[in-house]
Design brief:
Blueprint (H helix, E strand, L loop, with lengths): L1 E2 L5 E2 L35 H5 L19 H8 L3 E7 L3 E9 L5 E4 L1 H8 L3 E5 L5 E10 L4 E6 L21 E6 L7 E19 L2 E10 L11 E3 L5 E9 L15 E5 H14 L9 E3 L8 E6 L4 H4 L6 E6 L2 E2 L3 H9 L6 E8 L2 E10 L4
Parallel strand pairs: 1-4, 2-13
Antiparallel strand pairs: 3-4, 3-6, 4-5, 5-8, 6-7, 7-8, 9-10, 9-12, 10-11, 11-14, 12-13, 13-14, 15-16, 16-17, 17-18, 17-19, 19-20
């Protein structure tokens, strides 16, 4: 039986080997005595020091953590995060998830629970160690979003959705999950970038494409599906992928400070559709673009008759270089940008052509749901 830690990695070009260095310099530093800065002997014996009462930490036991601190966020979020274990006839996998309703609905990644969709057994572990059976609800392989439901529970703590559109680069965030099976692990960092198109293989020739939040909070195998929260403890993203430096085709490294999360606004919309309809649909521009072209912009190779793009006047040979204020670098960034729009939105495209140095603006109204 094959065992995996349920994550997706994003290649960084040339693979590089990484080593853990056990010591620094010749000989290294073996210890450091903290005490009186004076070099003179103050008469205190080692026995007296070892038998003295420990000094209190900044936050002592029993004191409530100050709002806005990582400690306060952890206390609020941890009870609403679960570890997920899936065992199928061919493989076992594990990951994390966010409880999003008191009756046990859990938001996670498709790649974490795909085995349960095919008839595998699924169990979740709560923050307090309690274990519950869970059932697969629905998932979408193209965006790597899934919903499961914990069986026979009620009045559970749950996370509230924050507004991922308001995230700012440099803003502090906290990631929670079960990396490498270590339940209830908390790491902190910042938002490193937003609107980062990231594609990852889902196996079987399929891939997912997300318009990701990039973070340097440590995210490792097993964090997949767990929450990325703001400093108020609100869900602003779902940790889904990491970039990895590896020494070979099968070697994988841990966190290198490049983690990617699905924005909460998008995940919330996907979860609603999965629960209500069992499947998701996305706003469509109605054009096909060349994914092999690496020049600036998304190159339109065909336009579907009657589509939003056709009605707006897009044509074969157009190159879309901007959606509203967002630069479009390639086909993936255009697809991710349109998927992230709301149904019925009016957007402005900047369009050029290979044989024309000028550009034009095209207003497109995306179809209603």
């Amino acid at each position: 039986m094959k065992t995996s830690k349920s994550k997706r990695t994003v290649g960084l070009g040339t693979a590089l080997a990484m080593m853990l260095v056990a010591g620094i310099g010749a000989g290294g530093v073996t210890g450091y005595v903290v005490g009186n800065n004076s070099s003179s002997n103050n008469g205190t014996s080692v026995s007296e020091i070892l038998n003295s009462q420990p000094v209190n930490n900044t936050n002592t036991t029993g004191q409530e953590a100050e709002d806005g601190t990582t400690e306060a966020v952890a206390a609020k979020v941890l009870p609403a995060v679960v570890s997920i274990q899936v065992v199928s006839s061919t493989a076992a996998s594990e990951g994390s998830g966010s409880i999003i309703s008191p009756d046990g609905y859990v938001l996670t990644n498709h790649h974490v629970v795909a085995g349960a969709e095919e008839g595998g057994m699924m169990q979740v572990t709560m923050n307090d160690g309690a274990k519950h059976d869970a059932e697969f609800v629905a998932s979408d392989v193209n965006t790597d979003v899934a919903v499961i439901k914990i069986k026979d529970v009620q009045d559970l703590p749950f996370l509230e959705f924050g507004n991922s559109k308001s995230l700012q680069v440099g803003q502090e965030v906290v990631a929670v999950g079960s990396p490498l099976g270590l339940n209830a692990t908390v790491t902190s960092g910042i938002v490193s970038a937003v609107n980062r198109p990231v594609r990852a293989s889902q196996g079987g020739g399929q891939s997912s494409l997300i318009d990701a939040i990039q973070t340097d909070a440590a995210v490792n195998p097993g964090n997949s599906g767990g929450p990325l929260v703001d400093m108020s403890g609100n869900l602003v993203g779902m940790n889904s992928m990491i970039a990895s430096l590896s020494a070979g085709t099968s070697g994988e490294a841990g966190s290198i400070g490049l983690g990617f999360a699905i924005p909460s606004n998008f995940a919330q919309r996907m979860a609603q559709q999965l629960i209500d309809n069992g499947a998701v649909v996305h706003p469509m521009l109605g054009v096909q673009v060349d994914g092999r072209d690496i020049t600036d912009g998304a190159h339109v190779v065909s336009v579907e008759p009657g589509s939003a793009g056709a009605e707006a006047g897009l044509e074969e040979g157009d190159i879309i270089t901007r959606v509203n204020d967002r630069p479009i670098e390639d086909a993936d960034s255009l697809i991710a940008s349109i998927r992230g729009q709301e149904f019925g939105n009016k957007i402005t495209l900047e369009v050029t052509r290979e044989d024309d140095d000028s550009s034009r603006e095209v207003e497109v109204t995306l179809p209603a749901e």
